[in-house]
Amino acid sequence: MLIVNLNVRGLGGSTKARYLNHIISSEGADFVCLQETKLSAISDARCFALWGNNNVGWLHYGGDNGSGSLSSLWHKEAFCYDTHIMGKGFIAVFGQHNKSNCRCVVVNVYAACSLRDKISLWGELTDMKKASQDMVWCFCGDFNAVRKSCERKGVSMRDNQSAEMRGFNTFIDTNLLIEIPLVGKHFTWFNSNGKAKSRLDRVLVTEEWMQIWPTCKQYVQRRDVSDHCALVVKSTVKDWGPKPFRSIDAWIMERGFTDLVKDKWSSYSAQGNALTVIKEKLKRLKGDLKVWNRDVFGNMETSKKSILQELEALDCQDCSGALSETQRLQRIGLVSRRKETDKKLESLLCQKARASWFKNGDSCSKFYHSSLRWRRLKNEVKGVEVGGQWCEEPCTVRAEAKKLFENRFKASRDFGVRLDAVEFKSLSQEDNLSLVAKFTEKEIRDAVWQCEGSKSPGLDGFNFNFIKNSWEVLKVEIVAAMANFHAT
Fold first, then answer.
1. Which of 385, 24, 10 lies closest to 186 in space, CA to CA?
2. What one-character DSSP code corresponds to residue 127?
């Protein structure tokens, strides 16, 4: 779902209306959240003009004579409205995203400056979320609070600043919310004099939201018609080229996996050099393993639940009456399969997490899996800034990464090491000719006598032809080795 969020600081002028119309149409927004419209009421005509389309649904909270007013708008073809809850500082719209068939809640939030009002708002939002646990939630807007001190610059620290941060973080942790990765500037509000800045606007979602839109990010737009920057929440999928070949350790524990890989590998045929052949074979093996993982290996959590259900049925039958010999053997087999599945799950989770969470008993918790997904999002390379412009194109990111490492590892100065004037030892022409010359019988005789330590007259009748031929073979190998050495 593509969401546009902005604290517009008044919606009366035509300049802000044109800006909103431009960003909504250029981004193809599904949902728009506006804070501080300064309007106690709003009309259909104004909403249609903002969107540039009359197929728009909307809700407006007038606040106190326009102070703290909110507007939520959505395209009816993208979002199907169901119901809503409206209160001081928020508009919660319940409905369904048509493209993904996801039942979700988009909450437009504007928190007041008073800490007491913020605490009251956080409590009301928490109670509302607890009442609808089966929905996918998204909280976006101007929260007027920061999570840590580094998110506020040039602003004097208030006495209740620490209490505000603790309360805001408690609200996020209590509702198991995740902050979507931020792309662009680190601050969303700037004072007119440019000395003060804070990150007041943000988007918080539940774990289920990230499962449906795993590549979702919040893009900070340039500051234009307001002292707040607009946020665009969208999912973008970039083609980074072929992914590396990876395997799961738990596959090796599956019976028949090794034989499957050997049979598949021997059945592949590819043309080209050795590296091309290996690349093509790995590519085909990767596709076959995907199919095998889906159809044969399957989901281990689902397999474990199925095994436990069968065991429970057999145990209940055993309590009410005797089991047959076949059923007892079946139960023994199920227990063995459960143990194997537990080992596979342990291997898989340890391979993914590379941490001690499994040992601490958190392997099956919702927090554990959300932490795995959040770590992947946090470590992901989202893009680079080139010439002051943010870029996410893979070819540009690769080029900038290559340039970075080239600059990092190239020699910073010339060490002045030269080999031009160095004279290396070489063989003379006479020595070269003596090395390639044929061995004489006298040379062989002298060599044998030296090995024996004396000139034995008993060697006169020795068959020197055999030794001579052996030395000739050895000489050829020596000359070939020296030629190879000279070539290198």
1. 385
2. H
Please give the Cα distance from 78 to 299 (Å, whole number): 32
Q: If DSSP codes are grouped into helix, strand and coil, which group holds residue 362?
A: coil
Query: Helix, strand, or coil here: 465?
Result: helix
Handedness of CA 241, 242, 243, 244 (dihedral sign): negative
pTM of the complete model: 0.62
Question: Kind and range of the H or E element at 41?
Answer: none
Token pair of 149 as six digits: 């001190």
Structure tokens at 340: 């194997």
d(CA 34, CA 17): 12
**Tokens read off for 89:** 């500082």
**Span 337-379, pLDDT tens digits:** 888 888 887 777 777 665 455 555 555 555 666 666 667 777 7
Quickly list H helices, 175-231.
207-212
Q: Which residue reads 């590379």 in tokens?
A: 354
> For 398-426, what is each residue's pLDDT tens digit?
888 888 888 888 876 766 777 777 788 88
Distance CA 197, CA 185 (A): 11
- Residue 184's region, left for phi above 0, alpha for psi from -120 to 50, else beta, is left
Q: What is the set of domains in the chain, with CATH numbers?
A: 3-235 (3.60.10.10), 249-355 (no CATH), 429-487 (no CATH)
Query: Helices in 131-273 by DSSP H: which ranges?
Result: 161-174, 207-212, 249-252, 257-267
Burial 136-165 (b: 16+ CB within 10 A, else e): bbbbbbbbbbbbeeebbeeeeeeeebeebb
Q: Do 110 and 142 contact (CB within 8 A), yes or no?
A: yes
Nearest of 233, 281, 21 to residue 108 by alpha carbon: 233
With beta carbons less than 8 A apart as the criterion, state whether 97 and 78 touch.
yes
Single-letter amino acid code for the residue at 390 = W
Amino acid at 412: S
